Amino acid sequence: MIWVLLLLAGAVAQDVAAQEVSALMQEPAVQAALDAAKRNEPQTIEDQIRLCEVPAPPFTEQRRGQMYRRMFEQLGLRNVRIDAAGNVIGERPGRQARPNLVFSAHLDTVFPEGTGVLVKREGAVLKGPGIGDDCRGLAVVLAVIRALNQAKVETAGTITFVGTVGEEGLGDLRGVKQLFNDTLKGRIDKFVSVDGTGNGIVHIGVGSFRYKVIFKGPGGHSYGAFGMANPIHALGRAMAKISEFQVPASPKTTFNIGRTGGGTSVNAIPFEAWMEVDMRSADMASLMAVDVKFKAAVQQGLDEENARWGGRGKLSVAVELVGLRPGGRTSEDSAIVRTAMGVAAALGQSVQLREGSTDSNVAMMLGIPAITMSGGGAGQGAHSLGESFDTTNSWQGTQRALLTAIALSGALAR
Ligand SMILES: [Zn+2]
Questions:
Q1: Is residue 333 scored above 50 in pLDDT?
Q2: Ligand 1 centroid to 192 CA: how many Å?
Q3: Which of 325, 345, 365 represents a domain boundary (last residue)?
């Protein structure tokens, strides 16, 4: 009964947000900006292609970053700069400095140096690595700035536009970590990332811990040196314990041994054995709990193997943290989520609330209102060489991003 009432309360809050956004849409400057966003979509798609044809491999986003910086300057943003991590930053001042909305997309891709990045156009479909994730987001961010300028929209607060580095994989969110912990520390009131394609709104940030575990020992001949502890055997003991972990289904919490290796020959006691482990949860407490069990399993694997051989060929273990993404959540009832949902409703679009691991994770962990929204159109094959983006009605995504930025930047009279 109680949850039914809560759902009803949520629905009512949703309607209020939609009504407020509808009222905002009646303002001539806002309507002009929405018109501009639709009219400019061919330019937005051109930007998307142009950015995507400049490679941005993990940890090597500089070339695309320089291009993005020039685009920010050409669009008249103030104080355009590149920070210590490589994030590209530019401001569009409002009537006041605060609230400061950071509106961003990520520069990096998952593709290594040397990957062919030319974009092919086949009718309405664009094909090229990164064309959706996240060249779409980068182009939508530019389109938002352009539409605000053309319609001379004056926002109450400031919007700081950012192209972030290090969103993907081992980049480990280093761009947003720098942004929140240093570059704009204490000066970010709300955070939006435009990432990928379609019509999702990510409000749950799935956190992850990633480790490389390495067991080491002297090694020796399998027959002649028999009686020594064996790193692969120790690894196997740890793996057996990990594979029996019980984890909550909700909040979804996972563990995976994704890679393993070691040893040199079938007739040698190895001197080394390793595994890479990934654990995830949208709930930090659950993630920490599985992390504690994981570390205990590794230690027990080591101790049991050493004890089994009475300390002969004694092994050691190193547990290296190779990835740390904090988790968190922005409540469905928060103003930022209600506003984003209200924008979609006011534009007659349907959106889906989702969970994901994105730049917003860092903001969510810090308790700063944050969402990651999709950039419209229809994407396929993200993170693959065959990635494609269907531009059909992609202007709807641009309008949704634009109106969300306006509504969150305090343009609403309140
Ligand atoms: Zn992405």
A1: yes
A2: 13
A3: 325
